[in-house]
Structures are given as C-alpha cells and as structure tokens.
Design a protein that fits this description.
This protein is an alpha+beta fold. The chain has eight helices and ten strands.
Length: 266
C-alpha cells in the first residue's frame, strides 16, 4: 500500500482515537488508577475501525508506528494532572502551575512573550506601534533562550527555560473542536495575545492555539526544533496540541513563530 495512503489512514485513526478520548467523561476516565471500561471500549473500537483496511504485515507495522500511544499519552497526562497536589501559589501573576509536568515545581507563562516584554530585555528591538501586546516573533531559538536566561538574572529563586514539547502539551491540554482562536485566516494577521482570552488551556493560560507558533526545546533527529500551537495562517488541524508535524531551524527567526517560558524553582 502507498505510504502516503497509510499516513492518511493513520491521521484518520488519530482523529478516531482522540474522539474516543473526548467521549469518555474527563472526571471518570481514571478509576482506581486505571482507565475505566467505557474508555477502553471506545479506544478498542476506534483502533479496529481505523486499522481494518491495513492488511499487509509491513503496512501494519508502519500504521501502528504512526498511531501507537496517542490515547495512552492523553490518558497519562490527564492522570498526572489529577494526582498533582499543587495549587497556584499566586493566581494573579503571569504564571500558571504546570500540573502534571515533571521537574522542580514547574510553571508556564500565562501567555506567549509579547513585544513589550521582549523590548525590556532588548531595548533596540523594534516593532509596529500599537502592537505592545502582540506576541514577539522573528526570534531565533537562541534569542528565546537568551531571554529566559535574562529573566533569571534578576530572580534569585527561579530558573527560566523554554518548554519541552511535553511541557507545552500538558499546559495546553487537548484543543476543543469548537475552540475560538486566531487560525485559518479568520484574522488578517496576528492579534494581541489576549484577543481570544476566553479560550484557555488546561493550565489556565491563553493563546496556546493559533496566532503564532511557539518554540519548544524538543529537537528532531535532524536538529530542528518542534514548534507548537499553529498560527493565524495555519489550519485548525495544525493547531491541535497533539500535532507534531512542524519544525524549524533554530538559527532563523520566523514571522509567525514566538515563544512562551517555563519557570522552575532553583
């Protein structure tokens, strides 16, 4: 079977599996530290329906490699959020507790770093007037990490870094299918980070989906960095938290790629 067709089938399988995740009540997916029967039945049914056309053994291996672990990952993330005992130590600041993430008390930025915030770090940085609260873009990976390091110079209690892909996904959570966001050319370009603030991620932060892609510290085998969340000119499918199909060269800045920051205790 043609590889492109198998990849298409795998994409359809992912949709079926994620739909199964959504059908299971979030509050009852975990019962006695294990998936409930409703959830397991939905997943098994979705897997069977999605993979039934793959008959060749070699094709099955490729298909399974493209679809394996999706629901398990979603389930694990939900479980880790539920058992994480932390509460936000300051609900009114610009940081959201990254419940379910590993590390030394990780928090994630409420929103992507803005032009005004970045200019505080780099006074010669210029941007269009009236766009103080737009996400900063055209920033290389090194620029973004330098900003994180700079934040730490005036904070004796915390370290700052870019999120890994896993951090980002845990912070965002699953993207609801009817979410309101700046994607698919609904706007003529980027907007302020709080333009769609009614839409929040699992951690309570905003602007995870659409508007601009965000750098993560996760690299691919070819040395590029995974970017997450899609942008104003991305399809809604590309904005999904589970989507990992876009990477960028860290030595370049891009007009639709920004970043947000993770904070951990020293």
């Amino acid at each position: 079977m043609n590889t492109a067709i198998i990849r298409l089938m795998a994409s359809l399988a992912m949709v079926a599996l994620l739909t199964a995740c959504d059908k299971a009540d979030n509050d009852s997916v975990i019962v006695n530290d294990a998936p409930n029967d409703q959830f397991k039945t939905l997943v098994i049914s979705a897997e069977q329906q999605a993979g039934q056309a793959v008959s060749n053994d070699a094709d099955k291996v490729l298909f399974e490699s493209l679809t394996s672990g999706i629901c398990e990952i979603r389930l694990e993330q939900q479980f880790l959020r539920l058992i994480d005992p932390r509460n936000d130590d300051n609900p009114n600041d610009a940081w959201c507790v990254l419940r379910g993430a590993t590390g030394n008390n990780p928090y994630i930025g409420y929103a992507p770093v803005t032009n005004a915030e970045y200019k505080t770090f780099k006074p010669d940085f210029n941007y269009m007037a009236s766009q103080d609260n737009f996400p900063v873009v055209n920033i290389t990976y090194a620029d973004a990490t330098a900003y994180c390091e700079w934040l730490g110079t005036s904070d004796g209690h915390h370290l700052y870094r870019l999120p890994s892909e896993e951090d980002w996904i845990i912070g965002a959570g699953h993207m609801p299918k009817d979410v309101s966001m700046n994607s698919n050319h609904v706007e003529s370009g980027m907007t302020a980070v709080d333009a769609y603030k009614q839409t929040t991620g699992a951690c309570g932060g905003i602007d995870f989906w659409g508007n601009c892609w965000e750098w993560t510290s996760t690299q691919t085998d070819n040395g590029e960095y995974v970017i997450k969340g899609g942008s104003w000119d991305s399809s809604r499918d590309q904005c999904r938290s589970e989507y990992s199909g876009d990477t960028r060269n860290g030595s370049q800045g891009y007009a639709n790629v920004g970043f947000r920051v993770v904070r951990i205790d020293k």
